[in-house]
Amino acid sequence: MSDDDLNKRIAKAQAEIDARERPKYMGSGKGMGLGFRMASDFAAAVIVGVILGLGIDALFKVSPWGVVICLLLGFVAGVRNVVATAMKANQAPETGDKKGEGDSA
Amino acid sequence: MMVSTDPMHQFKIEKLFDLKIGGLDVSFTTSAMWMVIGVLLLIGFLAWATSKMSTVPGRAQSLAEIWYGFIAGIVKDVNHAPGKPFIPLVFSLFSFIFIANLIGMMPYFFTTTSHIAVTGFMAIFTISLVVVVGLMKKGLGFFKIFVPSGVPVVLLFIVTPIEIISFLSRPISLGMRLFANMLGGHVALKVFAGFVPSLAVALGGIGMLMGGLLVMPLIVGVTALEFLVAFLQAYVFAMLTCVYLNDALGEAH
After folding, report:
1. Is the pLDDT of residue B12 over 60?
2. What pLDDT is recorded for position B39?
3. Contacts of A1 (CB under 8 A, 6+ apart)
4. Rounded Cα gap, residues B173 and A40, in angstroms
């Protein structure tokens, strides 16, 4: 029981420290990191689409349809990656201080 | 002159001594040497910093504590309680990438993270870990991440392949970003630096003056940017490891 109480107090103290100190050394560079992430996530999805398409073509002898369809899917997946990242980044400031259990998004 | 200004020359891997085990070439290379040096530096520094532990930390101990707290903070923010066993892993990944990037910033040193063999392996390891942990925690339910809930059945035929491609793109994105940033940054540095001797050779004294006044400040700026990128890429790698681990640890969404 007292263990639980202590954990709560530690969490509370930690949250206070975080609120005070975090912005100082976390704020800068975060946007740049996000930019790198989006760019490479988009490119990687397209590359994976092409590789998958080439593989399907070679396996099932349906050239060029595998590449055509998988490239399109790759573009869609790339856009999906970027949109998901952007949405998560927009959400973060509002849900950040709640710290609810299970907000896996 | 050609060799010294060739921007790709710095990434050449040379064998320090030959070693063959079972027909496989496992020679000790410059890349491996700098990786070992990086790891030894890390272990050495952390062991030294935490050898004289005191309640009021000294300089080295407080640096080590901030370092650890930074990573633990990321893991706690992203994964909450179930992420706790992965703090050492994320800490190791971050520290290794960071120290390798920093070693690469020193003149004449070798940047191990500018080779996709290194970064790609770390990325594949991370994603494999996500899959293994996910399968262990959720069993076959792990594959639900490919089937988003609340989507009509007809659309699932399109959405599932997209989700699978999106998942497969993660190791490539993870490995490629780090490798491309380090490679690109070092090539840019070398090319800009190469302007100085080129200008001096082409225009003589005026060229040397131009190189000194115009190009050198640029190189200083790019170097500063590279130090930022060195930290940022390590941070992004650690952060994304946590985000991807969430697929395995968090509940389905």
Report:
1. yes
2. 94
3. none
4. 5
Q: Say yes or no for a CB contact (<8 Å) between A36 and B232.
A: yes
0.85 surpassed by complex ipTM: no
Domain count, chain B: 1
pLDDT score for A29: 64
Residue B54 CB neighbours (<10 A): 7
Residues 6 or more apart in contact with residue B149 via CB below 8 angstroms: B252, B253
**Minimal C-alpha gap between B224 and chain A (Å):** 13
CB contact under 8 A, A18 and B162: no
Mean pLDDT taken over chain B: 86
> Which residue range forms the structural domain that includes residue B245?
2-249
Option in A37, A41, A104 nearest B250 (CB): A104
Higher pLDDT, A89 or B116: B116
Domain count, chain A: 1
Provide residues of A within 8 Å CB-CB of chain B.
18, 22, 25, 29, 32-33, 36-37, 39-41, 43-45, 47-49, 52, 70, 73-74, 76-78, 80-81, 96, 99, 101-102, 104-105
Question: What's the rounded Cα separation, in Å, for the pair B154 and B156?
Answer: 5
pLDDT of the residue at B5: 64
Which domain range does residue A36 map to? Answer: 29-95
Test mutation, B98, B166, B243, chain A, max A CBs within 10 A:
B166
Asked if residue A86 has pLDDT above 70, the reply is yes
pLDDT of B85 higher than 80: yes
Name chain A contacts of B239, Cβ cutoff 8 Å. 33
Q: Is residue A39 part of a domain?
A: yes
Name B220's Cβ contacts closer than 8 Å, sequence gap at least 6. none
| B165/A41 CB distance under 8 A | no
What pLDDT is stored for residue A24 in this prediction?
52
